[in-house]
Amino acid sequence: MLASARRAAALGAAALLICLPVTIAALLVVPAVPTAQEAARPGFAGSASCAGCHAPQAEAWRDSDHARAMAAATPRTVLGDFSGPTVTDGHHTATFLRDGDRFLIRTDGPDGTVADFPVSETFGVDPLQQYLVLFPDGRRQPLPWAWDSRPPAEGGQRWFHLMPQEALRSGDPLHWTGRDQTWNVMCAACHTTGLERGYDAARDTYATRWTELGVGCESCHGPGAAHVAWARGGARTEIAGRGLAVALRDGSGGAWRFRADDPRGIAQWDGPPRQAAAVQVETCAPCHARARPIVADPRPGMRFLDTHAPLLLLQGEYQANGRIQGEVFEWGSFAQSRMQRAGVVCADCHDPHSGRLRAEGNAVCAQCHLPARFDTADHHHHPEGSPGAQCTSCHMPASTYMGVDRRRDHAFSLPRPEVAAAVGAPDVCTSCHQGRSAGWAAERIAEWFGPRRRDDPHWALAIQAGRDGRPGADAALATIATDRMQPAILRATAISLLPMLPSQATAGAIGATLLDAEPLVRATALRALEGLHPRNRLHAVRFLTDEVRLVRVEAARALAPVPIDAMPESARPAFARAWEELLASERVAAERPEAWVNIAALLAARGDLGGAEAAYRTALAREPGNLAALVNLADFEARRGHADAAESALRRAVAAHPQEAAPRFALGLALARRGQSSEALAMLAAAAALRPDEPRYPYVRAIALNDLGHREQAVAVLRANIERHPQHRDSLMALATMERDRANFAEAERLAAAVMALNPTDREAAALQAQLRGLRQRLPSPR
C-alpha cells in the first residue's frame, strides 16, 4: 500500500485501505459467505427507481467506478484469479481458491494461523480490486492482496500485496485483521449508499447496514423517496426542490464564456452566481478528501465543515509547496487552486454520472483556457502532440498509490522548479527531463516567461520555514494567514504552524483570523488558542454559536480548561451545547483508542478526573499497547501525583514499542524527577539514538548530565548535537552557559552571538552577551 501507511494510520486518516480499529480476540474464521446486510431506510428509494426517468444518467452511472465501488462477491463481480494460484512476496503468502460460487483466500488470520477466508464483497474495480472478509463481530476487513485489473500490456492481471515492504504479523494494527484495516469505520461511508455504521461501543461490535452497495444516486443527491413521490404525483410544484435533498444543478442558465476584450484567454462565468457550486464541491468532498468525520453517518447535502474536519497541508502528507505526497485524494489540492476560487466545480471537468472527463486530452482544459493562447508551442514550449504538450504534464503531476493507482494533483499549480528545490519537493520539469537540474529547469522557464512570476515570493518558503521552526518564520506565516487572497486551506495551514509561545506577529495573526470569513480559518485560529493560558482564551466564547459546527467544536476545545464561572453567564448554555458537540465529534470514532485519549484529555482539562481515567482505560481496552494512550495516561497520573502509576504506564509503553523514542524519553524524564539518575540517563541516551533527527532529545540529556555534575560529558553531547543541528537554539544557549561557567568566555560569546544571529530579538541571548562582556572586562589584563 502506501509508504507512509503507519503515519496515516496514526493520524486516523481516511485512506482507501487504511481502516480503523478492531479487537483481535473477536476475529474468528467464518465458515461461509454471509448474506448481505442491506436494509431499507425511510426516505431512500434506491438507484433502480431513478432509471425510469433518468435513463441516460443511469446508463452512464452503471459502468462507473462509483457504481462498482463495492459489490457482493459473485462470479460476475470478482475479477481476480481464484483458480488456485499461490503467491508470495517474501514476507506474506496467500492461495486463491474457488468453491463453486464461493471465493476463498488461504492466508494467515487474526491469531497467525493459516486458514481459508471466504470473500464477502469486492471492493473497487479499476485499476485494482480488493476483497473483504466479514467476521462474526460484524467487522469487515480488506485482505492485503489485491488484483491488478489493468491489461497485461500495462503490467496487470496479477496478484500483489499492498504493503510488501512491511513484514506484517497478527497483532500489528496494520495486519489485515488489525484495527487500522477495519472497513466499517474507515471505508464504508464512501463505498455504500445510506450507511448506518451500527457500532456498539459497549460490546465493541458492528451491525452495519446500508440501502445499497456502491455509490448510488442517493449518495450524491440525498434520499430520493420524496422526489419519486413528486415525479409520480400531480402537484409537482408544491414540493420544495422537487423533493430532492441536494440541489446540484444551477438552473441559472449561466456558462463559462470567453470575452473578446480579455487578453488572458481565460473564460469567465457569465450568468447569475453559481448557487449550487459550493454544494457540488461539498457533496464530493467527504469522499475525496482526507478528513475526520465529526458527526456519525452524515447525509449528502450537509455542509462539509458541519460533518468533517479536513486535513490541512500537513508535513508528510503534502510537500511544502502544496503538492500531494501522502494518500490525500483530491479535495485538499483542489482547495488550493485558483480554479476553485473562480467557481469551477468538479462537474465542469468530470461527468458526474460516468466519472469520466468531459473531453479528452487538452480539450477538457480548452473549455476555459483558449486553445489559441494555451494549446500552442509558444505556451508549453514542447513539440505538438508530445507528452510535454499536455496540460496535465505540467499542471497536474501524478503520484502512484496502492502500487498501481496513479492520481493527479488538482491544485493546477504553475511549475516552479527553483521553489521545489528550495523545499526539497519533486518538480514536474526534472521528473520528465531526468538528469537535468532544477536550476536548469528554472532558467528555461525564466527564458520563456520572464524572471518574475505571479506568485513571487512563493508561500512554500514560509511553510517550509514554519515546519523547520526557523527564526522569522512567524512573521512570514502571519503574512500568509492574514492574506485573504490566498486559499483558506493554505491560510489555515500557516496558522497551524505559528510558533507558541506567541510573538507579536503570531498574536496579531491569530486575532485577525479569528474573525475571518472562512470557517476553516476561524476553526484553525481557535485551535491555535490552545497555546495560550486559559485566562487568555475567552475570545473563543463568541464562537460557541457560530453557524458552522467545526468552528463551534474548536471553540469548545479552546475553552476546555476555562472554569465555567470565568465565562459570561449568558455564554454558559452555548458552551454546554458546544461541549456536547465536541465530545460527540470524538465519539464518532469510538472504535479507535485515539478518540478516547482525546476525550480523556478534554475531561481532565474540565477537572473531571474520574471521567478522564475511565476514558484512558477505555482506550487501553481497545488496544492495550496503544502508545498515545500509555504516554498520555502517564502524564495524567504524574500531574495528579501518582508517580508509580505514571512510571508503570511508561514502562508498558517502552515494552510495547521498543523502537519508539518518545516513551523512552518520557520515562527518562520521569526517572530523573524521581532521582533514578543512572537509568534516566540510559533512557534519554536511547531516545536520542532512536531519533537522531530530533535535537531536543540530546539537549535534554545534556541538561540532565550537567545537573548531575557530568559537565564534560554534557558539553560533548551538546557539541555533537550542534554539529548535527547547528541552528538548535536551546542547545546553543545551554552550551554557551556551560562555557561561561567554565570561564571559557570567548567560546560562550561566540555561541551567544550564534543565537543572536538566529533571532536578533532574543532577550535571553542578549542578556548573556552583556553579562559575558562584563565578565571579560573584569578579567585581569595580560602582563
UniProtKB/TrEMBL annotation:
Keywords: Signal, TPR repeat. The keyword ATP-binding does not apply. It holds the Pfam family Cytochrome_C554. The keyword NADP does not apply. TPR repeats lie at residues 593-626. Residues 346-370 form the Doubled CXXCH motif domain. SUPFAM superfamilies: Multiheme cytochromes (SSF48695), TPR-like (SSF48452). This is Tetratricopeptide repeat protein. It comes from Neoroseomonas marina. The lineage of its organism: Bacteria, Pseudomonadati, Pseudomonadota, Alphaproteobacteria, Acetobacterales.
